Please model this.
Amino acid sequence: MTDTPTQLFIGGAWVDAADGATLPVDDPATGEIIAHVADAGPKDARLAEDAAVAAQEGWARTAPRARSEILRRAYEIIIDRTDELAHLMTAEMGKPLAEARGEVAYAAEFFRWFSEEAVRIDGGAGILPDGRNRMLLSRRPVGPCLLITPWNFPLAMGTRKIGPAIAAGCTMILKPAPQTPLSSLALAGILKEAGLPDGVLNVVPTSRAGEVVEPLLRGGKIRKLSFTGSTQVGRLLLAQCADTVVRTSMELGGNAPFVVFEDADLDKAVDGAMVAKMRNMGEACTAANRFFVHRSVAEEFGRRLAERMGALVVGPGTRDGVDVGPLIDAKGRAKVEELVADAVDRGAEVLVGGRTPQGPGCFYPPTVLADVDPGSRLMDTEIFGPVAAILTFDDENEVVRRANDTPWGLVGYVFTEGLDRALRVSERLEVGMVGLNTGLVSNPAAPFGGVKQSGLGREGGRVGIDEFLEYQYLAVPVG
Model:
């Protein structure tokens, strides 16, 4: 940990907070403080804004190939430092090292993907229908951006936003989650090493988000906000963006349905459930929350899932053989405990887990609940923990209605061997993404995002760079 930057990164330099404040970073497996990081305040935010604004014009004029090569070099550095970055991530947020290594590869791929997209920004030309003018369309960077990332995928959520911003020619201020600032600071160091000019990326960890973020959004210099986090906070940020009409991308909460029909291959369904539920200890917006299983196979599915979940090893992410690390903090674990207790009080049967272990750390066991009452709190709450809640259904129309009965619409999962039903149900689900006979939808080459209160816009894929570009139309008289 001694080589990891712990200062703010502003204008290409590592600096302390103006008022000298620091914030502690805890290891959720032990509760011990592993680092103290500079805690940005309003003055630091203004300095970061000034640096981003000053760098914008020159960065926008930088050749697309030059931006592409910086991203490619950063990709290669990340891959070369996989173990170092994985250990850092595990220390600050708890996921097992195997998952952390997987996230490093996932994060790096956003830089490789957008290094390729940087040189494919195009426009258009043509004569307008009235024949009087030629239309020339060009695309240009939207301008300085504020990027706000969560703690659950601290490296990948950074690269998923930074990659397209760099490719498009935008400068940035990155505010990482206060629980996991170290991964973001390490990423800033890598980009500086890869040749990113000073001021293009500025990183301001803070425990004073309101004091830092609101003035930036209301000040008129930030032209784009990209936020990943809760729907509640997203609504607040949208209101703050309204005064100066800041362009927004919002990747918000989820409440994913996982639907298993009577003709599903149960081996595939259980494998998919393990991925959709247990990736990142269930601390993912894509996590399956509500397991709707056809009554005829519900008992067998529950038995198999409980066996698989019960076989997982819980412990510190650095320990060999561990499958499930700690939750992010005591508050997150208490939320899971309360949701499980409420479901059990309403008649749910605990097939496995359900009891908090003794000892240090924020651990919670993989848990499967059967016969969950539809009125249970965990049916309309993003669980963010290793809890699978099983409900039964009898009819396709019924399950589609219940799956859509939520204000969120990020992702849904459907397991069936019938092609017609697979397509029909997938098209009826009110979600931005569907996993059909698979529990994993995230991929840098695919557009990630939801509908309803799960967000606005898309990240990744060929459309991911569009969020950081504006069109300009130029009319040129003919003849």
User: Anything to note?
Assistant: The longest helix spans residues 97-117.
